[in-house]
Write a structure and sequence with these properties.
- Strands 3-2-1-4-5-6 form a 6-stranded mixed sheet, with helices on both faces.
- The longest helix is centred in the middle third of the chain and has 11 residues.
- Strand 2 and strand 3 form a beta hairpin.
- The protein is 24% helix and 22% strand.
- The protein is an alpha/beta fold.
C-alpha cells in the first residue's frame, strides 16, 4: 500500500505540513516494499486550484491513503472520487504520522475539514 504524508521537506525525518494543497512535499511510503520517495508539490505556489492539482498529483503517484492536517472541498472531492483514504490529525515527523496511522490513531474523514482557499492564509 502506498501512503502519502504531507511534509515540509524530503524523507521520514521531515516535519509534517498540515496543509494539503500547499504542502512543500509529498512523501510516499510503500508499506510492502519499504521504499520512501519524496516529491515536490508543484502546486504549492499556484495562485488558485492548489488543492485540485495536489489531489491529482497524489492520485497519479498511486497513493491509496493520505495523511495530512486539512483538506478543502475541491481536493477532497477528487481524493474521494479516486478512492484515496484521507486521514487527518498528523503531528511531528513523517515517521510519527505513519506510526499513528498504523496504530489507528488518525481520524478518517468523509467530508472536507477545511474551507476553500484555507491554505492561502
Amino acid at each position: 500500500m502506498k501512503i502519502c504524508v504531507t511534509a515540509k521537506d524530503k524523507g521520514m525525518d521531515s516535519g509534517i505540513d498540515p496543509r494539503f494543497g500547499r504542502c512543500a512535499y509529498f512523501v510516499i511510503v510503500d508499506s510492502e516494499s519499504g521504499s520512501v520517495n519524496s516529491f515536490e508539490n508543484t502546486a504549492v505556489g499556484a495562485s488558485g486550484g492548489a488543492g485540485i492539482r495536489a489531489a491529482e498529483a497524489v492520485a497519479n503517484l498511486g497513493a491509496e491513503a493520505l495523511l495530512t492536517g486539512s483538506v478543502g472541498p475541491n481536493a477532497f472531492s477528487i481524493l474521494s472520487e479516486v478512492g484515496i483514504d484521507v486521514r487527518v490529525g498528523i503531528k511531528g515527523t513523517v515517521e510519527d504520522a505513519l506510526n499513528a496511522y498504523r496504530e489507528g490513531k488518525l481520524e478518517a474523514i468523509d467530508s472536507p475539514n477545511a474551507s476553500a482557499h484555507a491554505g492561502m492564509k
